Amino acid sequence: MADKEIPQGGGFLLGPTDPETAFVPEEFSDEHKMILTTTADFVTGEIDPVSDQIEEKDHELMKKLMAQAGELGLLGSDVPEDFGGLGLDKISTACVTEEIGKSGSFAVAQGAHTGIGTLPIVYYGTKEQKEKYLPDLAAGTKIAAYCLTEAGAGSDAVGGCRTKAVLSEDGKHYIINGEKMFITNGGWAETFIVFAKIDNTDFSAFIVERGMPGVSSGAEEHKLGIKGSSTTTVILEDAQVPVENLLYERGKGATIALNVLNIGRYKLGCAAAGGAKGALETATKFAKERVQFGKSIAEFGAIQEKLARMASKIYAAETSIYRSVGLIDASLHGVDPNDPEYGGKASAAIREYAVECSIDKVLGSEVLDYVVDECVQIHGGYGYVSEYPAERYYRDARINRIFEGTNEINRMTIPGELLKRAMKGKLPLMAAGQKLLGEIMEYSPMMVELPDEPLAYEAHVAEMAKKSVIYVAGLAAQTFMQKLIHQQELLLKIADMIIEAFAMESCVIRAKKAIASLGEDKAKVYMDMTQVYMDEVMPRMMAWANECLAAMAEGDDLRTMMVGARKLLKYNPANAIAIKRAVAAKVLDKNGYPISY
């Protein structure tokens, strides 16, 4: 991508995407593959054998495993080499995150530590702060936690923040009082990123150590899932935090929180994709071993359909996520971690893809939920008892739709961020909408000539899906104008259309790249999963468009609007049953996800 112009965040909606600007997993370097293998070996060799002990919150075991992960470099990929890390690209971090995502509670502890716990210091710390804290965090000899959430604040973490910081009389400390809740790693972390309002006004971040006076943890929460992770309140009672532990600048806490959460969102998507692959592998193995009516249940079409849909959804999530991470990597290219302005430059690069990060979070977490649910179903009654891993997968997965901003908040972020950029003139969505509205009645899907090549029709459909987003969103903006922000139900449906348009295009691009590099025969499973995914999504796209349009007009006006939507979303269904059988055959042959690297 180095010689290509990097697409704008959200710019995928404006026209065909150059495939060369979309990273796909088939482009992993040898180093990326080595990282995947190292991480996978760590999960299967070190974590899986002690998973029952982890579920009992064995504090010493968790510390030992984190230190082992640190020795392997699995905690320091984002940390610059000068401060004890490896300073790798974001694709490398995504590789680690995906494989660790199969490890349940450990994945939550590791993810919170390496992401929202460590990255605020990586991006916003002073040289002295980085030298003091990052080596231990990269090595895993100290564990980090991120203290943002408070009782009553929920998703309004900034506006609802009640934790207060005041400067001591001698000017040497900030005295912090407040209580943070639902803090991952809260019971065993030594380093906390704490958000508080200085003088009750300036929302700011601080690096707080467990050993500082006035810092303590509450009791462990009893949770539905991820039982082996630590979740507690973190209590600050006249906590004395040295002034040099103010992170970044006074009043810039929101900048830190939002940008680090963007990274947390795509990383959560990566972990969810990895967890989904693990659940598919487990379901496949069980289906092949479970015998009913004289043969394995894997031979039944009903089970094969489940396996094919699970694999196709994982394919869409994985493909979308790595595409996004590739964009972030390209945007960060040339940004020097040792630059005093690194935090600001990195923030701008990451902030550019806030829409894509939210897409990844929603798509990954909801694909994982679907896959673990089907994993339980394939197990039947066995899936409901704790002796089988399907039960734990099911419980562990549920939190991901709440972590890193609820999926509802992320859905609101997607169209909200796009409209904000359009209003500022950063993204010409308004002009694209006006042009499309002028052309739509003249457009005829019957007049489109497609090239004679594989996936030409699917590429056309994906492009029309993107146009449908611009069409519906443009009409919504015209209808509600400044009041559109209050039409949450409509915005949620538009967000779903955006998510799926991005996912469908990502699937097509990846499949086309696979055809080019592997040949059509070896790329058939890519083509099949793309068709399976699109065949399920397109009817939903039409339903979402209709629901949105019905909220804007009625009678003849509504019928006219719906004509335009039908033209854009016209879709000829594939022989999905036959294609799913082909995908299922690959899943069974591979004993899980049908693509390997």
TrEMBL record:
InterPro entries: Acyl-CoA-dh-like_C, Acyl-CoA_DH_CS, Acyl-CoA_Oxase/DH_mid-dom, Acyl-CoA_Oxase/DH_mid-dom_sf, AcylCo_DH-like_C, AcylCo_DH/oxidase_C, AcylCoA_DH/ox_N, AcylCoA_DH/ox_N_sf
Acyl-CoA oxidase/dehydrogenase middle domain segment(s): 145-238
Cofactor(s) demanded: FAD
Disordered: region residues: 1-20
Molecular function terms, GO-annotated: acyl-CoA dehydrogenase activity; flavin adenine dinucleotide binding
Entry keyword annotation includes Flavoprotein: yes
Key words, A-Z: FAD, Flavoprotein, Oxidoreductase
Top-level taxon of origin: Bacteria
UniProt domain Acyl-CoA dehydrogenase/oxidase N-terminal: residue ranges: 29-140
Recorded family membership: Belongs to the acyl-CoA dehydrogenase family.
Identification of the protein by name: Acyl-CoA dehydrogenase
Organism encoding this protein: Desulfoferula mesophila
